[in-house]
Amino acid sequence: MKTIRWGMIGCGDVAEVKSGPGFYKCENSTLQAVTSRRIERAKNYAKRHNVSKVYNQADELINAPDIDAVYIATPPSFHKEYAIKCARAGKTVYIEKPMAETYKDCLEIIEECKKTNTLAFVAYYRRAMERFKRIKKIVNDKVIGDVRLVNVTLYKKAAKEDYDRNNLPWRLIPEISGGGKFLDMGVHEIDILDFIFGPFLEIEGKASNQAGLYEVEDIVTANWKFQNDVHGTGIWHFTSFEDCDRVEIIGDRGKIYFQFFSEKPIYVTTKEGVVQYEYKDPEHVQQPFIQSIVNELIGNGKCSGDLESAARTSEVADKILKNYRIKKGFSKFI
């Protein structure tokens, strides 16, 4: 059976444990080559992970004849450029989330992939994790009846590095990330709601910067509606007094409660009582999703995420952040 030979662009934190090892630990898959803007980082990564090739430039890796698929593990400002280059080179592409800096950029990627008949995926990997597949099944099986309401809450204390305005992490620099921590964490929750309930039919949102630690938003609120008149709200606050992670799915015969970014149990409450479901995250959280991509590429299954669903998440984020971006003069993203 064919082995998919991966090349990886970017050797930062996400590639160290969450994703990178998955490419060589999955069945019928190997990590063939890496590259990075900081070539010494790429060489160090290759040595520690037994990767045989290091390329000096991303273009060299993309066009290498012994590479079948490319993982773009860079900040979002590079996603569109590299994804389009991969498509034109005939390489399957796996893009870190968010898919691109804006929904418009996502559409350009989709257009190029269609034009070149290229398969492409985005790292909304929680779709392949057992805990979220279980939640989707509980909803689909109507264990809690017809869903009426979906509420998402995420509060985070400001991190130590958030206070160093002259040396902020790239996730808080708008020209690199496209936005703040909402685009790093909140989009995972938006995507899972799409996975469970389908596309958002209506979405309204507001964003602000309350603490003044950086230029991008630090609080986001939203309300939405799905098919079957399912309503919901979301709040993401990243300079909070305390941490809070809570998702509630309320039905007419019960409810589901869980913490999104935690291994703590899923609680399902009905008139029969409370049932708990417990799942441990994989050591490399992207590995099950990567395996599903590999399986699709070798004709042995179907990945649960595609470009269209990933683009929808960017569209929702753009709508929520639109007025804040206008106010701040982030013209690149308007």
From TrEMBL:
One Pfam family it belongs to: GFO_IDH_MocA
The organism of origin for this protein: Clostridium pasteurianum BC1
Domain Gfo/Idh/MocA-like oxidoreductase N-terminal: 4-124
Domain GFO/IDH/MocA-like oxidoreductase: 132-256
Protein name: Putative dehydrogenase
InterPro entries from the UniProt entry: Gfo/Idh/MocA-like_OxRdtase_N, Gfo/Idh/MocA_Oxidoreductase, GFO_IDH_MocA-like_dom, NAD(P)-bd_dom_sf
GO molecular function: nucleotide binding
Coiled coil: none
